[in-house]
Amino acid sequence: MMELSKRLQYVASYVPEGVRLADIGSDHAYLPCYLMERGQIEHAVAGEVVKGPFESAERNVREHGFSDKIDVRLANGLQAIHEEDAIHTVTIAGMGGPLIAQILESGEKHLATVERIIAQPNIHARPIREWAVSNNWKLIDEAIMKEDGKIYEILVLERGEATYSEDELQFGPYLMREQSEVFIEKWQREAEAKRNILQALQKAQKTEDNARRSEKIKQELTNIEGVIAK
Q: Which of 90, 120, 127, 135 is the most exposed, having the fewest neighbouring CB atoms within 10 Å of its CB?
């Protein structure tokens, strides 16, 4: 039986039973192969834009005997999804939040049959939440976890309207409420990084630009401290 990284296991846990899946930026197609091996999905598309990982995905799918159940496609983002695929769930993992949001925005027309998006940004989750609000998707769950010293967030979206406060966009409405140890650790790290930047700016040449940057960072630091203090 295949084993997944802890990060991808979290993503897999949000994939509903019996769906048709598109895994975008699939790399070696580990996730769709894992889900297929467990009988969790009916069919999958593994999309990859880079030739090397695309070829690795093809090889992995073939070696696991899933060539008739997983279509591996060399395509840019959501262009890997064809109308006849009738995809229900899309997973996009292992990229920065701004890139995931860009993929969703530029390929929005390919989401016609999609009912759930599971996004796992490596950094900067906020742009995904902002994209969701602007495109009639809402968060139904979030998770945060740590693996090999790195902290990752998982965002689960379904269709529907929602509005979020500035803090909810930044920190995540579910994650803010849960206040897990990993959540606290992530934002304590962020706060420390901002304090270090402030110290450097205080030692730097006094300019209007540096003064504006300092004020902005002070406000961000205040927001972080206010959220984790709750």
A: 135
